[in-house]
Amino acid sequence: MIKGKEKGLARKDVRQLADRVDDFWEENAKEPKGLLIINPFRHEPADERKDYYPPDCLEFAKGKKFCLMTTMDLVELLKDYLENKITTEETEQKIMNTTGPIQ
Q1: CB count, 10 Å around CB of 85?
Q2: 63-90 per-position pLDDT tens digit
Q3: Could you give the count of Cα atoms lying within 13 Å of 102 in the half-sphere of its Cβ?
Q4: Are 3 and 38 in contact (CB under 8 A)?
Q5: What are phi and psi of 86, to 5 degrees?
Q6: Under DSSP, is residue 30 helix (H, G, I), strand (E, B) or coil?
Q7: Domains of the chain: which residue ranges?
Q8: Strand 35-39, strand 2-4: pairing
Q9: 94 and 102 in contact (C-beta within 8 Å)?
Q10: pTM (two decimals)
Q11: DSSP class per residue in 85-101
Q12: How far apart are CA 22 and CA 16, in angstroms?
């Protein structure tokens, strides 16, 4: 799920992802990895953005084993891939093995 936000992540965003994960699980009898990509504080310069993940959102996302990333994290992953620093499989594993914010 991808969200553009004027502020940081909200608990309702994580709850919406949880609902979508549950729906997928019910329809496919298979639990997916929850991935939430946000573009926080989208009207502010990238170097001035901070506090993307409030503590209650982090706790909820970690409890559900969701991976959180910003659009800036996504660009960095793409850059690393295009520069052959990381493979498709390594990228997938990084996402699948991350609980909370991607590093």
Answers
A1: 10
A2: 999 999 999 999 999 999 999 999 999 9
A3: 23
A4: yes
A5: -150, 140
A6: coil
A7: 2-101
A8: parallel
A9: yes
A10: 0.87
A11: SS-HHHHHHHHHT--EE
A12: 10
Residue type, 19: D
The answer to whether 66 and 57 are in contact (CB under 8 A) is no
DSSP codes of every residue in 67-81: EEEEHHHHHHHHHHH
Q: Which two tokens mark 22?
A: 């549950």
Rounded to an integer, what is the distance from CA 40 to the centroid of its chain? 11
What single-letter amino acid sits at 71?
A: T
Measure the CA–CA gap between 48 and 33, rounded to whole angstroms: 30
- 97 has a pLDDT exceeding 90: yes
Q: Which two tokens stand for residue 51?
A: 């506090």
65: how many CB neighbours lie within 10 A of its CB? Answer: 15
- Rounded-to-integer distance, Cα 74 and Cα 47, Å: 16
3-state secondary structure of 6: coil
Expressed in angstroms, the distance from the first to the final Cα of the chain is 18
